[in-house]
Amino acid sequence: MSSTFDQIANIIAETCDIPRDTIKPESHAIDDLGIDSLDFLDIAFAIDKAFGIKMPLEKWTQEVNDGKATTEQYFVLQNLADRIDELVAAKNAAPGA
Amino acid sequence: MNLDYFQLIDRIVDLNLDEKKITVEAQVPAAHTIFEGHFPGFPIMPGVLLTEAMAQSSGWLLLGLLKFERMPFLAIVKEAKMRGFVSPGQLLTIEAKLEHEGSGFAVTKAKVRVGKELKCSAEITFGLAPFPDPALRVHMDAMANKIGFPLQAITHD
Questions:
Q1: Do you find a cis peptide bond into B42, omega within 30 degrees of 0?
Q2: Which domains does chain A have, with CATH numbers?
Q3: What is the pLDDT of residues B97-106, one digit of tens each?
Q4: Which residues does chain B have within 8 Å of residue A41's beta carbon, measured at their own beta carbons?
Q5: Which of A4, A31, B6, B79 could form a disulfide with A81 if both were Cys (CB 3.0 to 4.6 A apart)?
Q6: Alpha helices for chain A (secondary structure H)
Q7: What does the pLDDT look like over B3-48, one tens digit per residue?
Q8: Residues of chain B neighbouring A45 (CB-CB closer than 8 A)
Q9: What residue stretches are annotated with the Carrier domain (chain A) (predicted)?
């Protein structure tokens, strides 16, 4: 089974027409890959579907805007993969999961 | 359907918040200047307007699911397929279903039929934002009343 990073890199490559080999774990989705908010919305839909989660984009954006988090924490792809893994783990740990 | 004001939906036939779907009707006018240009001798409803009709239908569904607390704004249209011509005077039945509710966005799938014939379909993504102006909220309330939005559907769970 491919890693979470590989799965989101494939989604980004397909959604944004970015060559897959240019997408690295250390890539920043916005600063390095030039993904804008509309494309990210499309990516979020694909990620939510692929992993069966609801990425809390509004919460993350608010944390960045409030200075409580940096964009790197959420938009460097390896960090994004880690956040997704946390969300999947939390979902699986939830009662009734 | 009031094309001059871009109000494409006439009536909500059914809003089912449990199943997250809506059915609406829209009467294409028998005559309009749009049909004089699109096209002379062969008047048909422009695909962009059919797409907008699917978006507005989806929008009413989302307003119901959001209890009018946020406004859906059109962001992405995918897989918009114009499967058959729609002529002046035809009655459209439009169904929209929630495909996914994300954080700050929602995705629907919508279909337009004339009778039993499927005329077009699309997957539509909306950004969900607070109402940017109180006047818009007032307008949406008035439109909801006009098209028979079942307010009781959102006043109790």
A1: no
A2: 2-91 (1.10.1200.10)
A3: 999 999 999 9
A4: 75-76, 102, 104-105, 125, 127
A5: A4
A6: 4-16, 37-51, 57-65, 71-75, 77-93
A7: 999 999 999 999 999 999 999 999 999 999 999 999 999 999 999 9
A8: 100, 102, 105, 107, 125
A9: 2-88
